[in-house]
């Protein structure tokens, strides 16, 4: 009888603690779902508005004609599309290898050394720096010295945005690889560069590619860096040493204009950037869904 009497309060305390944990879990889950729903509402709203307003400005001329003069009919975004594609591609090709190699160094070699700590600190500063600051830096160091806006300056500004994103993502993904996997490869007599190339980097490939796509998405719509570097060009030009048309600056200029044709083309540009970034993310997930 005494054992039953003693176990009854303990059972009551356990039941009370269990009920309290369930209540806390329910509250946390409800708040999380509410926050997710709040974010999804705005995201879906933005996507729907972008699709409705952007699809109206899409036509064959959008991809074949250059930007029109003020208060004129017709025209397209061919020069801006080509200019953005060139600069974003070159910036990604320039910044991605640097970011991946720096991320490998930080994850595999520089975990305790002073150089690794300094590199990580500088990378964090670059990662949090506003893009307009990077644009002003390239303007002061490149554009002001050569006294000309250019596509090359735009590529440098965009590459400086790509590098810290790729560095951080590569380092984090490599650190998630278990050390047991490295030790097993070392036990087979493989040198460290083989371990990194054939094992750790291969295992983290999906995460590294995701980081590159995040960087690409960030620079695809970046207006501020290009305002101070590539500027814009109303005409079709492939000369990287001269001002080059690009979608972000064209959208910025056209969206603020009072001309209906320019506003429609601005929404068309927003729609194309959104669709392009979405397509790249879907493609990457399809290609690497079995390699995570």
Protein described:
By secondary structure, the protein is an all-alpha fold. Helices cover 77% and strands 0% of the residues. It contains 12 helices and no strands. The longest helix has 54 residues, at 2-55. The radius of gyration is 26 Å and the shape is globular.
Summarize the structure.
It is built from 12 helices and no strands. It has helices at residues 2-55, 60-64, 78-108, 114-128, 131-146, 151-175, 179-187, 192-203, 205-220, 224-227, 247-255, 260-288.
Report the radius of gyration as a whole number of Å: 26 Å
Tertiary shape? globular
Percentage of β-strand residues: under 5%
Distance between the termini: 58 Å
Search tags:
292 residues, 77% helix
Secondary structure blueprint with pairings:
Blueprint: H1 2-55, H2 60-64, H3 78-108, H4 114-128, H5 131-146, H6 151-175, H7 179-187, H8 192-203, H9 205-220, H10 224-227, H11 247-255, H12 260-288
């Amino acid at each position: 009888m005494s054992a039953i009497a003693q176990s009854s309060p303990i059972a009551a305390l356990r039941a009370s603690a269990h009920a309290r944990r369930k209540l806390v879990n329910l509250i946390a889950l409800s708040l999380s779902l509410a926050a997710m729903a709040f974010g999804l509402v705005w995201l879906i709203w933005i996507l729907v508005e972008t699709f409705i307003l952007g699809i109206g400005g899409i036509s064959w001329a959008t991809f074949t004609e250059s930007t029109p003069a003020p208060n004129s009919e017709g025209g397209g975004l061919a020069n801006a599309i080509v200019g953005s594609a060139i600069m974003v591609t070159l910036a990604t090709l320039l910044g991605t290898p640097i970011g991946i190699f720096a991320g490998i160094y930080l994850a595999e070699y520089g975990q305790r050394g002073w150089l690794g700590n300094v590199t990580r600190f500088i990378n964090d500063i670059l990662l949090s720096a506003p893009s307009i600051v990077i644009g002003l830096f390239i303007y002061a160091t490149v554009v002001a010295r050569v006294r000309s806006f250019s596509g090359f300056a735009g590529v440098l500004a965009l590459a400086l945005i790509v590098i810290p994103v790729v560095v951080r993502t590569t380092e984090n993904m490599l650190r998630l690889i278990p050390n047991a996997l490295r030790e097993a490869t070392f036990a087979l007599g493989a040198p460290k560069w083989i371990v990194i190339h054939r094992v750790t980097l291969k295992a983290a490939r999906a995460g590294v590619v995701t980081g590159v796509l995040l960087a690409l998405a960030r620079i695809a719509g970046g207006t501020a860096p290009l305002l101070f570097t590539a500027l814009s060009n109303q005409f079709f030009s492939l000369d990287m040493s001269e001002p080059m048309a690009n979608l972000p600056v064209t959208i910025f200029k056209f969206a603020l204009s009072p001309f209906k044709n320019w506003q429609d083309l601005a929404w068309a540009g927003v729609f194309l950037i959104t669709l392009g970034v979405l397509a790249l993310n879907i493609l990457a997930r399809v290609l690497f869904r079995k390699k995570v």
